Amino acid sequence: MEVNFWDKEIETIDKSSLKALQLKRLKETVGYALKTPFYKSRLKKAGINSGDDIKHWEDYKKIPFTTKDDLRECYPVGLLAVDMQEVVRLHTSSGTTGTPTVIYHTKNDINHWAELVARSIVATGATNKDVFQNMMSYGMFTGGLGLHYGAEKVGLTVIPMGGGNTKRQIQLMKDFGSTVLHITPSYILHIHSKLEESGVDLKDLRLRKAYLGAEPYSENTRKKAEHLFEIDVYNSYGLSEMNGPGVAFECVHKCGMHVWEDTYLLEVIDPKTGESLGEDKEGEIVLTNLNRRATPLLRYRTRDIALIHKGPCSCKRTHRRISRITGRTDDMLIVNGVNVYPSQIEEVIMRIPEVGTNYQIYLEKEGALDKLIVKVEIYSKMFRGDLSEIDALKSRIIEELRASIVIHPAVELHEPGSLPIFEGKAKRVVDNRIKL
Amino acid sequence: MKLTQISIFLENRKGRLYDVCSLLGKHKINIRALTVAESEQFGILRIVVDKPEETAALLKKNGFVASLTEIVAVEVADKPGGLAEILKVFSQSNINVEYMYGFVEKRSDKAMLVFRFDEPDKAIVLLKKKKIKVIGRKEMGDL
Question: I need a labelling partner for A321 at 20 to 30 A (CA). Which of A69, A304, B20, B133 fits?
Answer without folding.
Answer: A69
